[in-house]
């Protein structure tokens, strides 16, 4: 068997076109041009690329994509002040602090990342990192949904892959991917209806005993680990759906957390890296920015 390859690039493009059409309608109806401001501290090359890509995607969707560049020497207090002024600026609808913040920032002592993220106004928190937005998601009444897990929900929905009643194993428990992913799929109703919710979810992590055996019981296996190709074909049940969130640079190649070539002969459907989950993350960021503009207009 060779798995169906889930084309995140194509689905991401469709979502971006939907968002662009909705932005045009919103602006034609008298709404302000939605504006996303990314705050980039320091010179990390990968972060520069991510921010540039987000800004380009914004422009293509009719969204004002701004980048505020700050030197690595910026202090915690200065960064908080910058975010507070963006919170107050009515022309800015979404705020994104590009992570990771420089390790030696804040005069050498490093930033308190949590405190920085907590400063972002929850109504402008398009990454859905603030405790208010995490709490609302937990309670099953989300405002913004975190972009990567929401992209995965969209991918499953748009390719007709139901998770209701199935066993989903999420490997990884980060606040950005693993935890919200597990929570979204376990809810009674998801952003795309009941088929992409109602799963029986197991969260695995670095302290999970017998990880391979746990993974083998998954109807849907979601890998968000950050270890190149650690999910091998023997860990995948015949016919499972495999979603690979990992983006790992190995030499000059990008590889996922799943050993793709062997896994595709076991799985019924699988996301490639690149071209799987990545493009959906940006698409959902645009969706959240439009939502933020609409919320602030109300
Ligand atoms: P984190 O490093 O924050 O979390 C990784 C998780 O994996 C942790 O919960 C950790 O467990 C777990 N883990 C690490 N090693 C093992 C192991 N050997 N066995 C089992 N579990 C393990 O990463 P993120 O969630 O932020 O990102 C994960 C991956 O996804 C990365 O490659 C990242 O680049 C990628 N990513 C891709 C995105 C996209 O748009 N496609 C967006 C965001 C991330 P523990 O908690 O015990 O330490």
Automatic annotation (TrEMBL):
What are the transmembrane regions? Answer: none
Q: Which reaction does it catalyse?
A: (6R)-5,10-methylene-5,6,7,8-tetrahydrofolate + NADP(+) = (6R)-5,10-methenyltetrahydrofolate + NADPH; (6R)-5,10-methenyltetrahydrofolate + H2O = (6R)-10-formyltetrahydrofolate + H(+)
Query: What pathway does the UniProt record associate with this protein?
Result: One-carbon metabolism; tetrahydrofolate interconversion
Q: EC no.?
A: 1.5.1.5, 3.5.4.9
What molecular functions are annotated in GO for this chain? methenyltetrahydrofolate cyclohydrolase activity; methylenetetrahydrofolate dehydrogenase (NADP+) activity
So where does NADP(+) get bound?
172-174, 247
Q: Taking every annotated instance into account, which residue ranges of this chain make up the domain Tetrahydrofolate dehydrogenase/cyclohydrolase NAD(P)-binding? A: 146-296
Claim: Hydrolase is one of the keywords in the record:
yes
According to its UniProt entry, the protein's GO biological process terms are: L-histidine biosynthetic process; methionine biosynthetic process; purine nucleotide biosynthetic process; tetrahydrofolate interconversion
Annotated Gene Ontology cellular components are:
cytosol
Q: Which domain of life is it from?
A: Bacteria
Q: Which UniProt keywords apply?
A: Amino-acid biosynthesis, Histidine biosynthesis, Hydrolase, Methionine biosynthesis, Multifunctional enzyme, NADP, One-carbon metabolism, Oxidoreductase, Purine biosynthesis
Output the InterPro entries linked to this UniProt entry.
Aminoacid_DH-like_N_sf (IPR046346), NAD(P)-bd_dom_sf (IPR036291), THF_DH/CycHdrlase (IPR000672), THF_DH/CycHdrlase_cat_dom (IPR020630), THF_DH/CycHdrlase_CS (IPR020867), THF_DH/CycHdrlase_NAD-bd_dom (IPR020631)
Q: Please report the stretch or stretches of sequence annotated as the Tetrahydrofolate dehydrogenase/cyclohydrolase catalytic domain.
A: 6-127
- Asked whether the UniProt record includes 4Fe-4S among its keywords, one would answer no
Q: Which family does it belong to?
A: Belongs to the tetrahydrofolate dehydrogenase/cyclohydrolase family.
The function of this protein is: Catalyzes the oxidation of 5,10-methylenetetrahydrofolate to 5,10-methenyltetrahydrofolate and then the hydrolysis of 5,10-methenyltetrahydrofolate to 10-formyltetrahydrofolate.
Oligomer status and interactors? Homodimer.
Identification of the protein by name: Bifunctional protein FolD
């Amino acid at each position: 068997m060779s798995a169906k390859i889930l084309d995140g690039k194509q689905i991401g493009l469709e979502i971006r076109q939907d968002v662009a059409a909705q932005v045009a309608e919103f602006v034609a109806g008298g709404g302000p041009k939605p504006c996303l401001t990314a705050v980039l501290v320091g010179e990390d090359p990968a972060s520069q690329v991510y921010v540039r890509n987000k800004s380009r995607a914004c422009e293509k969707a009719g969204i004002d994509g701004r980048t505020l560049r700050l030197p690595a020497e910026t202090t915690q207090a200065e960064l908080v002040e910058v975010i507070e002024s963006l919170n107050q600026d009515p022309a800015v609808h979404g705020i994104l602090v590009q992570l990771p913040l420089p390790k030696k920032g804040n005069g050498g002592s490093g930033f308190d990342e949590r405190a920085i993220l907590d400063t972002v106004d929850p109504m402008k928190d398009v990454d859905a990192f603030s405790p208010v937005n995490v709490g609302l998601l937990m309670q099953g009444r989300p405002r913004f949904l975190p972009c990567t897990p929401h992209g995965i929900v969209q991918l499953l929905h748009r390719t007709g892959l139901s998770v209701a009643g199935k066993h989903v194993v999420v490997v990884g428990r980060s606040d950005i991917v693993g935890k919200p992913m597990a929570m979204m799929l376990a809810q009674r109703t998801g952003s795309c209806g009941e088929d992409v919710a109602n799963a029986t979810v197991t969260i695995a992590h670095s302290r999970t005993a017998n990880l391979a055996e746990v993974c083998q019981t998954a109807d849907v296996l979601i890998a968000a680990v950050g270890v190149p190709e650690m999910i091998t074909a023997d860990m995948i049940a015949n016919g499972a759906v495999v979603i690979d969130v990992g983006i790992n640079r190995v030499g000059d190649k990008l590889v996922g957390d799943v050993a793709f070539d062997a896994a595709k002969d076991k799985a019924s459907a699988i996301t490639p890296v690149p071209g799987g989950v990545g493009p959906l993350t940006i698409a959902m960021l645009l969706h959240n920015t439009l939502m933020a503009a609409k919320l602030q207009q109300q």
